[in-house]
Amino acid sequence: MARKQTLADDLEDDFALDNDYISDSGNNEQGDTDIKKTSKASSAAAKRKAQTNEEEDVVVGKKGSKKSKNGSGTSSNGFSVPKDAEEQAQLWNKYMKKAYAGISELELQDISMQAKHIYKADQQEPQWGSANFLEELAKTAVSTGKSKNKVMHGAPQVLVICSSALRVIDLVKKLRPVSKRAVLKLFSRHIKISEQQKTLKSTAVDIAVGTPNRILKLLTEGSLKVNRLRLVVVDCWQDDKMRVVVDMDDTRQDLFGIWRDVLLPASANADYGFKLRLAM
Hints:
Elements (H helix, E strand, L loop, with lengths): L1 H8 L9 H7 L3 H43 L13 H15 L5 H7 L21 H14 L11 E4 L3 H11 L6 E5 L6 H10 L2 E6 L1 H10 L9 E5 L16 H16 L7 E5 L1
Parallel strand pairs: 1-3, 1-4, 2-3, 4-5
């Protein structure tokens, strides 16, 4: 008994057995309970740490993915054109409402575009979104029109409306192989309107490509005619600043003016069979 007392007295008041020693003792019920609690707490802490690391990895992964998308040229606010005719009409009306913010809903309805106004090729259409979609689409209008319409000066079968003179030049190069007749450039930069009026009056043309302001002026004064027109393409190409012709301050008023003041009234004439198409 004295020996046991001595062993107990030899221990300091602040002496504490570590967990390994307690677990090996095997004869302390309270100690076993404490071990289980400590073990569970350690395990839970480890799980929380692992979960935190996983969440951090996910966040980093998302940021990396976003950066990768931007690096590939895909913009989060990129403009897209739907294939469906009804959706194209809705998109057009959306931006027209923005251009004519001061008019009433009733007035907007009177000039709104409908699915029936959207062009659909009589023959099989080119693949939507393909690199040469515009050229192939133009072919469907020009080839069909040759057998039905008399060639007239200043009266194209295809009219393409672009946001800038540089874009006009680019598309004219692509569209030249579509027709043997002239493909005209209609924009104001370095070209007087009187020169374009003279060219239109003396030139048989199947395709004309131009900017909204110059096209509207030529249509209004009569040098550019719509009696042979079958397809009007609104080129929704995005420039380096991600701008599109339907939403640019210096183009949208004239663009929607072409529709409201010229094309929409002319579409009521049974002799005219043109339709409009948005394309990129």
